[in-house]
Design goal:
Strand order of the largest sheet: 1-2-3-5-4
Oligomer: single chain
Number of helices: 12
Shape: globular
Low-confidence stretches: none
Strand content: 5-15%
Number of strands: 9
Largest sheet: 5 strands, antiparallel
Mean pLDDT: 95
Length: about 350
Amino acid sequence: MEEKELKTIVEWFAMEGTIVSIRPLGNGLINDTYLVTTAGEHNDYVLQRINDSIFTDVDLLQHNVEAVTKHIRAKLEAAGEQDIDRKVLTFVPTSQGKTYFRDGTGRYWRLSVFIPRAKTFETVNPEYSYYAGKAFGNFEAMLVDIPEQLGETIPDFHNMELRANQLREAVAKNAAGRLAEVQDIVDELESHAYEMCKAERMGREGILPKRICHCDTKVNNMMFDEDGKVLCVIDLDTVMPSFVFSDYGDFLRTGANFVAEDSPELEKVGFREDIFEAFTKGYIESAKSFLTPVEIAHLPYAVALFPYMQCVRFLTDYINGDTYYKIKYPEHNLVRTRNQLQLFRCVLGKQEELKRFVESCL
């Protein structure tokens, strides 16, 4: 978009200062993000266009984000924390009092205060994995007693029963005629389906609670200060009620694989125990204050659940004819499927070992 048009959008918000420039910021895949620079000593800002094709209920989305940041700010103030404006996101209201604005073309926008002297890292190593575990566990701990009801910004995002049924529907239709070549994978996944769907069963039985989780626990969703200390967790669009397995298992699915999820080199796929141990240590340190024995006992299950779930989702899309995930070549989703299946097998073979390490962290 032209800078002139972006300035018109920013002016709907109750910002301070005079706009000097608006430039693209970061490389996010979901929302369009811009840095709004102002003159003098005033704050700079971050302008985002909310992708309402993914987050279809923007009002619910912003309610969640506002409730979470307000609650965290109150916790930090009560604890006597310093430099709070760098430790929690601050959203700027419009003249109508909302934290989002819908322009004349139907696009949704929001504005937040830019956190100065902060940075993110893409590196996944034991040090940053420990920081990530600590930060996301603390994030959940601060939200255990949030008084407001939050909704699901992406309904059934990590619902394994739903994903398993979607695969069965794809198999029944065989829309792209690809079932025969992947029948062996379908059979293997189906043999584990009952066990992998037990989180939903435990939830219905009342023995597994839903928490307010981040649901996108990547290492680059944390901001660090000049001294390398974690300031805050960012990218809050997926914050919603979920099982803690979402935050714990999904980080390890991506962070603890030796290769990328679409690497065709299956012989190199494997589970990095150094990343697992570092992340788990940090996570349990900050989350053990609220985790139940059932949640703790099933953390190794969560490590297996997420490569299994992603394998199911990639295979479903491949059988359907590649209608959901972007692909770079015809077999891309099949390569992703085999990659995640191999990771699942690796994790499944280490369950007892993972359980012993979790217990040692207590």
